[in-house]
């Protein structure tokens, strides 16, 4: 491709709307352009990268025996009503009506449509197992679209759905996808981790996520330092601490704490650590508000809490008015002593003694609180996020925390959808059986952003070779004035292209500095510079995007090096 014919505009300025480096670089390098909130156009350069991701994903899915199809993006409400998700999905679902007033949504995922296909196409266990997949545009009306293509509203997903006669079959199909995903992310050259995950709105039993490790990741991942345990923090379990509670050392005392609204305020006033306090959060329940009690330095885990009996899902914090009516106090002065609402205590509160907490009276707190003396010893549950240093499950080692970007998610669904939609086949005894399903998603567009988060420097993107929009950038110096440079560059362009390499030939009449800056910004792995001086010495200047310095190679050496990169 000749740069002069590629129509690429790069930006020097960092666009104000972009918070993280991949979003900034994608805009600056001209990979994407924003249309509206969460909606992006993939420009020719970006689309080249996207197509490379898709190609790797398709190859590995096909290799794993999955069958590609393409379902409609628009889905009738009636299907979603059959599984109950029309009501459950909430505002994430973009709904609309046609000219006849019939309701539809733009698919955020395709379990209903594929199960409808399975109902119609699959009749006998002999047709199983089968795994259908597509690469397709999804729409989710995200509450906070951000980070460019990482959390957009319209995005491209590869989604696959497996159908088996029983759970053992489903497990085998799931393991195949686990292996295919591992191969995909390895081939793409990304550093990733597979973690246990929550199944969310999709439902089902087991699920695992594939995360690209990056500091800007929206998810926190807890992993063990002694074995291969790793989990999204949403589902990483905490346990009742070992050992015993210390004996009370202080008397219970109620003190005035005017102006104290947060645990931080309380700690400052009393000069204590947050781990010696207890905080009380009021959430909406199915039968009135519920109090959740945690150690002051711990964070509530919404995914765990919303599964508790009596707690409303999705987890919703009670508003000030509800809190006042339910407790007679304000949010900053709540505590477990004398609390009249239903209460859940987190495991980590079990062994506290001489702790401080709100007195359920506006502007007052208790200090020197002790279980079994001032309030009954609690039954405890797991409602907090793990923190670094917590014990790993299995009793060995401790947990560390890393940040990740979820790029893939695999689920064992069981018969949730097949039962709701009567997707049965005849088993070997001639009996109708609901099929056991799995579903498997990869965020194709998100991968591009995630790859940049992991591979960049101050000057721009550094594409892993399998994702690069071009393999080589060919930079002639002074080509518009030197016939020798023009001839040599044109000949190299033809020859490299012949090898099957994707070459970006920077034939623009601009300063070399501009060409170098653009080549670094857009992150092409190999750079070859042709200049009069080099030609006189029989040399070309070569530099890999990751190299500190360039080196001079003769023509043959340079061609061999690039030829090899084309093969590998
Ligand atoms: P998240 O937790 O990030 O909102 P999710 O768990 O809701 O994602 P899934 O239903 O598991 O997403 O979808 C499969 C894959 O689609 C995700 O692993 C992710 O890579 C991608 N994806 C989901 N939502 C978005 C989005 N808003 N923008 C871009 N990619 C997305
Ligand atoms: Mg997910």
Can you describe what's shown?
This protein has 568 residues and is α+β, with helices and mostly antiparallel strands. The chain is built from 15 helices and 30 strands. The strands form 8 sheets. Strands 3, 7, 8, 9, 10, 11, 12, 20 and 23 form a 9-stranded mixed sheet that branches. The longest helix is centred in the first third of the chain and has 21 residues, at 167-187. The radius of gyration is 29 Å and the shape is globular. The model has no long low-confidence stretch (mean pLDDT 95). Adenosine-5'-triphosphate is lined by residues 109, 140, 142, 151-152, 155, 157, 200, 202, 406-409, 441, 443, 445-446. Residues 109, 140, 142, 151-152, 155, 157, 200, 202, 406-409, 441, 443, 445-446 line the site of adenosine-5'-triphosphate.
List the helices and strands and how they pair.
Blueprint: H1 21-28, E1 32-36, E2 39-42, H2 44-63, E3 67-68, E4 74-76, H3 77-83, H4 85-88, E5 94-97, E6 103-106, H5 111-121, E7 130-139, E8 154-164, H6 167-187, E9 192-196, E10 207-213, E11 219-224, E12 230-232, E13 253-256, H7 263-270, E14 278-283, E15 290-295, H8 302-305, H9 320-327, E16 343-346, E17 355-358, E18 364-369, E19 380-381, E20 399-414, H10 416-420, E21 424-426, E22 432-434, E23 436-443, H11 444-454, E24 456-457, E25 460-461, E26 472-476, H12 483-498, E27 503-505, H13 512-522, E28 526-530, H14 532-536, E29 539-544, E30 551-554, H15 555-567
Parallel strand pairs: 3-7, 15-16, 16-19, 26-27, 26-28
Antiparallel strand pairs: 1-2, 4-6, 5-6, 7-8, 8-23, 9-10, 10-20, 11-12, 11-20, 13-18, 14-15, 17-18, 20-23, 21-22, 24-25, 28-29, 29-30
Helix pairs in contact: 1-11, 2-6, 2-11
Bound molecules: adenosine-5'-triphosphate (ATP) and magnesium ion.
């Amino acid at each position: 491709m000749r740069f002069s014919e590629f129509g690429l505009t790069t930006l020097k300025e960092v666009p104000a709307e972009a918070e993280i480096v991949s979003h900034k670089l994608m805009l600056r390098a001209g990979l994407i352009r924003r249309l509206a909130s969460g909606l992006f156009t993939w420009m020719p350069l970006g689309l080249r990268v996207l197509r490379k991701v898709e190609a790797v994903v398709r190859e590995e899915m096909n290799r794993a025996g999955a069958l590609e199809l393409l379902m409609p993006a628009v889905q009738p409400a009636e299907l979603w009503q059959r599984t109950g998700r029309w009501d459950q999905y909430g505002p994430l679902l973009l709904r609309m009506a046609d000219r006849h007033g019939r309701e539809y949504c733009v698919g955020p995922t395709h379990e209903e449509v594929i199960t409808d296909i399975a109902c119609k196409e699959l009749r006998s266990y002999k047709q199983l197992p089968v795994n259908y997949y597509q690469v397709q545009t999804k729409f989710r009306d995200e509450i906070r679209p951000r980070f460019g293509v990482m959390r957009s509203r319209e995005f491209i997903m590869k989604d696959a759905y497996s159908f088996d006669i029983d759970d053992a079959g489903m497990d085998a199909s799931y393991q195949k996808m686990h292996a295919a995903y591992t191969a995909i992310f390895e081939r793409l050259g990304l550093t990733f981790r597979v973690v246990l995950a929550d199944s969310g709105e999709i439902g089902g039993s087991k699920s695992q996520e594939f995360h690209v490790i990056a500091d800007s990741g929206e998810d926190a991942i807890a992993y063990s330092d002694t074995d291969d345990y790793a989990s999204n923090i949403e589902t990483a379990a905490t346990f009742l601490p070992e050992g015993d509670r210390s004996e009370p050392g202080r008397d219970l005392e109620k003190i005035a704490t005017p102006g104290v609204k947060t645990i931080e305020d309380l700690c400052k006033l009393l000069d204590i650590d947050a781990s010696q306090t207890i905080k009380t959060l009021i959430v909406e329940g199915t039968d009135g508000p519920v109090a959740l009690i945690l150690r002051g330095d711990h964070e509530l885990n919404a995914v765990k809490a919303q599964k508790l009996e009596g707690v409303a899902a999705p987890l919703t914090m009670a508003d000030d008015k509800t809190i006042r009516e339910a407790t007679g106090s304000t949010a900053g002065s709540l505590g477990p002593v004398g609390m009249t609402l239903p209460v859940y205590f987190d495991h980590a509160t079990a062994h506290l003694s001489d702790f401080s907490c709100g007195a359920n009276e506006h502007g007052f707190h208790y200090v020197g609180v002790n279980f079994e003396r001032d309030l009954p010893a609690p039954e405890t549950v797991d409602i907090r996020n793990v923190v670094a240093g917590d014990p790993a499950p299995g009793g060995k080692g401790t947990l560390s925390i890393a940040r990740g970007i979820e790029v893939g998610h695999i689920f064992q669904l069981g018969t949730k959808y097949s039962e709701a939609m009567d997707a049965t086949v005849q088993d070997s005894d001639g009996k109708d059986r609901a099929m056991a399903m799995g579903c498997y998603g990869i965020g194709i567009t998100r991968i591009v952003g995630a790859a940049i988060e992991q591979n960049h420097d101050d000057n721009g993107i550094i594409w892993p070779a399998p994702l690069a929009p071009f393999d080589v950038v060919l930079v002639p110096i002074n080509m518009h004035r030197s016939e020798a440079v023009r001839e040599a560059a044109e000949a190299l362009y033809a020859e490299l292209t012949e090898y099957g390499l994707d070459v970006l030939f920077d034939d623009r009449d601009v300063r070399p500095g501009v060409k170098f800056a653009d080549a670094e910004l857009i992150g092409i792995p190999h750079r070859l510079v042709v200049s009069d001086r080099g030609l006189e010495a029989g040399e070309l200047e070569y530099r890999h995007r990751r190299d500190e310095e360039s080196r001079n190679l003769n023509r043959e050496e340079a061609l061999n090096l690039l030829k090899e990169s084309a093969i590998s």
